[in-house]
Amino acid sequence: MPTEKPPASEMSIDTVFGLLASPRRRAVLHRLRSADGNELSVDAVAEALTENCETVQSKRRALISLRHHHLPKLDDASVVEFRRDDETVRYAGGPFFDDVLQRAISFEQS
Questions:
Q1: What is the dihedral of CA 67, 56, 7, 109, to 10 degrees?
Q2: CA-CA distance, 93 to 110, in Å (whole number)?
Q3: Least C-beta-crowded within 10 Å: which of 71, 74, 88, 91?
Q4: Residue 42 and residue 66 in contact, taking contact as beta carbons nearer than 8 Å
Q5: Element (H, E) at 91
Q6: Which residues of 10-28 are buried (b: 16+ CB within 10 A; e: fewer)?
Q7: Mind listing the pLDDT tens digit for each residue in 49-76?
Q8: CA separation (Å) from 86 to 5, 39, 82, 89, 95?
Q9: Cα separation of 85 and 94, whole Å?
């Protein structure tokens, strides 16, 4: 039986910073957050990652790292809802995570 994941609002500050430590995860979260709660295909997220993250060399590699590393990690932390069956993902971070993410993005863009 699967265990219940704690909501994003209950994560520690160390977990928040750990999730935001990766430029790829920040780019993914920024793209998902800008979708206003709508689901996106993993393919669309990979496309955005390829276009906006200089460390990503190809869409194929982006898809692999999303499916096997970044999205499962974010899903385990309840920051995204990653549905493997239909390859969709939706942002699910709460107000605290939103605030920290926005500050990180603003800092990065300044």
A1: -160
A2: 23
A3: 88
A4: yes
A5: strand 88-91
A6: ebeeebbeebbebebbbbb
A7: 888 776 777 888 889 999 999 999 999 9
A8: 21, 11, 9, 9, 27
A9: 24
